[in-house]
Design goal:
mainly alpha
Length: 173
């Protein structure tokens, strides 16, 4: 991840620290959530609002540890521990847990949909400027926008499906 730094007044720092504590997230995560909200990126809710202070240790043989490392890397998790914790949360909450790679894929899909929205706005502006004239290439532009939306819907649906299948979560929809 890229790091960004800023200077805060003592009052701003106190307010940030207090808000993060009340929400049960780190200051960095709170800032990421704020940026997503302002930029229109996907909002990612934390799995829980309590600090994760409990630790559980498991013993694996060497083969199991290697398989865990392979699977966690293949599924886009930074560490085997993160994958194992996600597996436990998925089982306990009966809900899918997204990896960093999946969250990034959703962010990218969101950016693409935002670009499609901008294209639609340009088409609407052109039509509003002269309702009697059909701007050159309008039909193709509309078809292109529709294709992009369908492509991204399919990609997001596939990502969610893979995630639910990974954790063997039953989808009631």
């Amino acid at each position: 991840m890229i790091q960004t730094k800023t200077r805060l007044t003592p009052e701003e720092k106190e307010a940030l620290t207090g808000l993060a504590r009340r929400r049960g997230v780190t200051e960095s995560e709170l800032l990421r959530q704020m940026i997503r909200t302002v930029t229109g990126g996907p909002e990612v809710e934390p799995v829980d609002t309590e600090r994760r202070s409990c630790q559980v240790n498991i013993r694996l043989d060497e083969h199991e540890r290697d398989k865990l490392a392979e699977r966690s890397a293949a599924e886009g998790y930074r560490t085997p521990t993160t994958w194992a914790a996600s597996a436990v949360r998925a089982a306990i909450h009966q809900d899918a847990v997204l990896s960093d790679a999946e969250i990034e894929a959703l962010r990218e899909a969101s950016r693409e949909i935002a670009a499609v929205g901008r294209n639609l706005n340009q088409i609407a502006r052109a039509l509003n400027a002269d309702p009697d004239a059909e701007p050159e290439g309008l039909a193709q532009a509309v078809v292109s926008v529709a294709e992009k939306v369908e492509c991204h819907k399919a990609a997001v649906s596939a990502l969610i499906g893979r995630n639910l299948n990974r954790w063997e979560v039953v989808d009631d929809e």
